[in-house]
TrEMBL record:
GO cellular component terms attached to this protein's record: cytoplasm
Family: Belongs to the aldehyde dehydrogenase family.
Source superkingdom: Eukaryota
Name this polypeptide is given: Succinate-semialdehyde dehydrogenase
Substrates-to-products reaction catalysed: succinate semialdehyde + NADP(+) + H2O = succinate + NADPH + 2 H(+); succinate semialdehyde + NAD(+) + H2O = succinate + NADH + 2 H(+)
Active site: E279
GO molecular function ontology, one term from the record: succinate-semialdehyde dehydrogenase (NAD+) activity
Pfam families per UniProt: Aldedh
UniProt pathway: Amino-acid degradation; 4-aminobutanoate degradation
Annotated source species: Gomphillus americanus
GO aspect biological process, one term: gamma-aminobutyric acid catabolic process
Statement: the UniProt record of this protein carries the keyword Oxidoreductase: yes
Amino acid sequence: LRARTTQYIFTRTYAMSASHTIPKLNDPSLFKEQCYVGGSWIDAKSKEKFEVHDPATGKLIGTCPEFNKEDTERAIQTAADAWPGFRKLTGRERARMLREWFQLMQDNADDIAALITWENGKPLSDSKGEVQYAASFFEWFSEEAPRSYGETIESSFSFNRVFTRKEPVGVCGLITPWNYPAAMITRKIGPALAAGCTVVAKSPGETPFTANALAELAHRAGIPKGVVNFVTAMKNTAEVGSTLTASPTVRKISFTGSTPVGKLLMKQSSDTLKKLSFELGGNAPFIVFDDADVDAAVTGAIASKFRSGGQTCVCANRIYVQKGIYDSFAQKFTEKVKAFKVGPGFSEGITHGPLIHERAIGKVEDHVRDAESKGAKITTGGQKLPDLGVNFYQPTVLTGMTTDMKIASEETFGPVAALFPFSTEAEVVKMANSVEVGLAGYFFSRDIHRIYRVAEALEFGMVGVNTGLISDVAAPFGGVKFSGFGREGSLHGIAEYQILKTVTMGGM
Ligand code: NAD
């Protein structure tokens, strides 16, 4: 029955070579298996490498250097050496470089998208969307760079004059996850460079090749040597992290990833008192009130829940539907999910690719079986898809969810939609706020008073009202509670990479 209701696609559109499965890049020189440090492509001093595998097939994509403490310290020193020269450039000069990097991303968009699909697994059309979203951070911050002004301030004393300057914080350590291999990096590097900082970016071990392609384009864009440095590690990830956090030369850490790793990095950064911004885990509620446009809510919930196979930090994780419309919502929602086409990301017409690795599949299985054992009903999905490749899971809908099930409090990070019934506004707001994290929350309603009330009552950094899509370079992105602090994108994103210096001139 499941095989009939959800379509699974088996065809592959890319060719095999002797050792690798290679997508056809227009510019194969964008595929780099080294680290970009100080304007050169280098190996780890130990020559050690780690393997990166295609999440759809498990086949080897390539290898990357296994950087250790010494290699990372070298990258930090390179960034420190480049900083005095880079910070002296005017905002407009830095803007022109970011604009050129943006343009090169546009010119090479198909290749970057292919690399994303290859190592992350998401459908090629989604990867193309990610490239545009990622590039938008270079465009946006190229516009912010020349307009980051200080202030003149009326002093309390007639003999003083006071003004402020916004100055770059210095060398920044950037650590990003695999779920948006391009966008998570550009969202940090764009504002860092706009502010006049230099960076050491630790790209994710699962998806280093997209990051390397971006590094190659930085080189071609004329970003001065040492301003952007990319380091890679798999087994030595924690060592690279502790080197970045312990270094007094690194003045700022920006991290996107899980809450436990965020807490660890914060502890490690305390001895050197770094400026920090953390975008951590979410567990988004998605509330549908019975005064909502149900069809619009179904569309919004699909977009919010199943983007990137449910592997985004702002994905709906707990879908609360008011009892009066619960059954009709569940039925319409399930029909849409049954129409998904699952398969390798390069295949034509697929809507969903594999999950990133076996651990991700394990967590999804655990959450589904836990809910099932406590009385939830699976209306579609609920199984692995081993015939498609290594990390495929059926898009799944669970009804009859209760608060004792794991999904009520833990982030699934996979293609599982859990529908919880509720009775009153007060009850659902309490349930929505009951988790430790507070990244994104959503609700659908047509009652203007309720819209204000609930938007204000939800304890989340971002609230979507009558929409399932909230990511926008122009809008501040970030969380509260255990989802972290700091904001990316928008007018505010650049401030995370600046210090506000006050200059007081006396004797006037
Ligand atoms: P993770 O925390 O395990 O890894 C994230 C990154 O940190 C990776 O590059 C990883 O290599 C690195 N890392 C892991 N341990 C480290 C250490 N000790 N020192 C230095 N670096 C270390 O997270 P993940 O499982 O890869 O990603 C999924 C999580 O990220 C989810 O919880 C999700 O909600 C969160 N996330 C948040 C956002 C956001 O904007 N808030 C965006 C995407 C993902």
